[in-house]
Design a protein that fits this description.
- The complex is a heterodimer of chains A (215) and B (235).
- By secondary structure, chain A is α/β, with parallel strands linked by helices.
- Chain A is built from five helices and 13 strands.
- Chain A is 16% helix and 24% strand.
- In chain A, strand 6 and strand 7 form a beta hairpin.
- Chain A starts with a helix and ends with a strand.
- By secondary structure, chain B is an alpha/beta fold.
- Helix content of chain B is 20%, strand content 28%.
- The chains are: A alpha/beta (215), B alpha/beta (235).
- At the A-B interface, helix 3 and helix 4 of A face helix 4, helix 5 and helix 6 of B.
Chain lengths: 215, 235
């Protein structure tokens, strides 16, 4: 059985470490906040200008001045601070954020990422994605292994316009987990399989070459 | 001391608008947008505007209002996904669009206001946004040159302000407002609470009054784009 959305989020949560400052993208990455291990202190950054993001408000307690990067109403914590977009991206671009977890349309085995634009379709914009992948210390992608028509999203070369070049460290798909040596020469490495997924299946569904690092 | 306080948004824009002008408009989504000044800009009838704003509002609110009246010629933004009229005009070739990565857009405004002509960033290297731009290698890594942005007019929204133009923002409604306030040749700020000079704690001021030419107290709808809540646990 491939991993569900929640299982993907649970697996991505294993990349969290105590004391980390983390930026979560929209979609499945947002769910990672539900799986922060007990006793671990993780501070969530929202690129619209907030560090220390709390849960959604109770009904009737929504504040129009307090939203996350997905424009959802949220709450603050004791440790929360607010700042401008310039300071926010100073944190991001300046390498002060430990981990970014985000979605993707395509990833190459060299760590190139495409997640903002499909030519011929109305483009919504890259938002903060290009800044995040360029500046955050470690970039983890969570995505479906194949597109709706069954094509591999892990490629030797992305076909879509890029968000960043040599930026992805780890790819978690519904079929397994791959490590990428983004600045080095090591090939992409399969390190985990989803429950019930075989090496044959994931090999058949992956266009990019990889080595078997399963333990 | 010249008076910076104006009675309403309409009079606060008088003499500052002209066709073909560039306007910076603060806010992230609908959070912290200068809603009164956007309405006044619409009512001024000014045309052919280039708007620099992270987003383009939604259908029927915020900058979406200026799209409906076709007063915007070009948008410089990082994300415009919430607006059907925007998509329609863009696909029909009626609207020009320049995408900037969000952090690059923020820094371009900051740089413009601080008199910095350009800066090098890693953001966007090897992507479409770096095409045609100068690159340079620092310590073995490639950076792309981005330029500072200035506007003929910046319109911003703050929580509190005083008659001197000193501004304090609230929570995530700060976003692009402080940088944009610095990067307009003229800056008009609208506030929820306007106090006498001396009533704000000087240590708490986010935007010093030197950047603000005119200030007006507004009435605010403060629309919420995505109202998300959690259930109360039963005691």
């Amino acid at each position: 059985m491939p991993w569900s959305r929640d299982q993907l989020a649970q697996r991505a949560a294993k990349e969290l470490r105590d004391g980390f400052y983390v930026n979560l993208g929209i979609g499945i990455p947002t769910l990672v906040a539900n799986y922060i291990p007990e006793g671990m202190e993780v501070t969530l950054q929202s690129e619209n200008g907030m560090l220390g993001m709390g849960p959604f408000p109770f009904e009737g307690e929504e504040d129009a001045d307090l939203i996350n990067a997905g424009k959802q109403t949220i709450t603050a914590l004791k440790k929360t601070s607010y700042f401008s977009s310039a300071d926010s991206f100073g944190m991001i671009r300046g390498g002060h954020i430990d981990l970014s977890i985000l979605g993707a349309m395509e990833v190459s085995d060299r760590g190139d990422l495409a997640n903002w634009m499909v030519p011929g379709k109305m483009v919504k914009g890259m938002g903060g994605a290009m800044d995040l992948v360029a500046g955050v210390k470690r970039v983890v992608v969570v995505m479906e292994h194949t597109s709706k028509d069954g094509a591999s999203k892990l490629l030797t070369r992305c076909t879509l316009p890029l968000t960043g070049v040599n930026v992805v460290d780890l790819v978690i798909t519904d079929l397994g987990v791959f490590e990428i040596d983004k600045h080095g020469q090591q090939p992409m490495k399969l390190i985990e399989l989803a429950d019930g997924v075989t090496l044959e299946e994931i090999t058949a569904k992956t266009q990019a070459p990889f080595t078997n690092g399963l333990r | 001391m010249a008076n910076k306080v104006y009675a309403d948004a309409k009079s606060a824009l008088e003499g500052l608008t002209f066709d073909g002008m560039t306007v910076m408009s603060g806010g992230f989504g609908l959070c912290g947008i200068p809603e009164n000044l956007i309405l006044a800009l619409r009512d001024s009838g000014v045309k052919g505007i280039t708007v620099i704003s992270n987003n383009a509002g939604v259908d029927g609110w915020g900058l979406g209002l200026l799209l409906e009246t076709k007063q915007i010629r070009k948008m410089v933004s990082s994300y415009v996904g919430e607006n059907k009229e925007f998509a329609r005009q863009y696909l029909a070739g009626e609207l020009e669009l320049e995408f900037n990565p969000q952090g690059t857009l923020a820094e371009r405004c900051r740089a413009g206001g601080a008199g910095i002509a350009g800066f090098y960033t890693k953001t966007g290297v090897g992507t479409l946004v770096a095409e045609g731009k100068e690159t340079k290698v620092f310590n073995g890594e490639t950076y792309v040159l981005e330029t500072g942005l200035v506007a003929d007019l910046s319109i911003v929204k703050a929580w509190k302000g005083d008659k001197e133009g000193n501004l304090i923002f609230r929570k995530t409604a700060r976003n692009f407002n402080p940088m944009m306030a610095t990067a307009g040749k003229k800056c008009v700020a609208e506030v929820e609470i306007l106090v006498e000079t001396g009533e704000l704690d000087p240590d708490q001021i986010h935007t010093p009054g030197i950047f603000v030419d005119r200030i007006v107290k507004g009435a605010f709808e403060k629309r919420i784009e995505q109202r998300t809540v959690r259930q109360r646990e039963n005691a």
